[in-house]
Design a protein that fits this description.
This protein is 71% helix and 3% strand. It is mainly alpha-helical. It has two domains: 60 residues, Multidrug-efflux Transporter Regulator, Chain: A, Domain 2; 68 residues, no CATH class. The chain has a two-stranded antiparallel sheet with strand order 1-2. A hairpin with a 5-residue loop joins strand 1 and strand 2. Helix 4 runs antiparallel to helix 5. The longest helix is centred in the C-terminal third of the chain and has 49 residues. It is elongated, with a radius of gyration of 25 Å. The relative contact order is 0.08.
């Protein structure tokens, strides 16, 4: 790696917010492929940092690691896999949309119940004033 800023694993862990163990695990699983210096120490680049940010973000959507690994393998195959990668992202988006619909339903249920209690309380207050 010439003329690029590189980071050893400790500094890279701090910058990405991932633990050293996580970085090693991602490497073992094929998600990261850091270069090694003459002493065999991992050297991470800005490209690696961007990729880690993507992994963190896609994990936050709930995408399972096996799907992230599949996405990563497709990414390494180049632009000919764009449609396949988009398909993975669409699948994850559909799952999130379904989760949002379920959460919206739960919120509506809670709103209705709170409204019922507000009406009950208002009716009780009116009765107490008239008594």
């Amino acid at each position: 790696m010439t003329n690029q800023t590189t980071y050893f694993i400790g500094e890279f862990a701090e910058q990405t917010g991932l633990t050293i163990d996580t970085l090693r695990y991602y490497e073992k699983e094929g998600l990261l492929e850091p270069h090694r210096d003459a002493n065999g120490r991992r050297q991470f680049s800005e490209v690696d940092r961007s990729w880690c940010e993507f992994i963190k973000r896609i994990k936050a959507t709930g995408m399972p690691l096996r799907a992230i690994k599949q996405y990563s393998a497709l990414r390494h195959q180049g632009n000919k896999t764009i449609d396949d990668r988009v398909a993975l992202l669409k699948t994850q988006r559909q799952l999130l949309a379904a989760q949002r619909a379920e959460i919206d339903s739960h919120l509506a249920f809670l709103d209705k119940k709170m409204s019922t209690y507000a009406e009950m309380k208002q009716n009780l207050d009116c009765r107490n004033k008239n008594a």
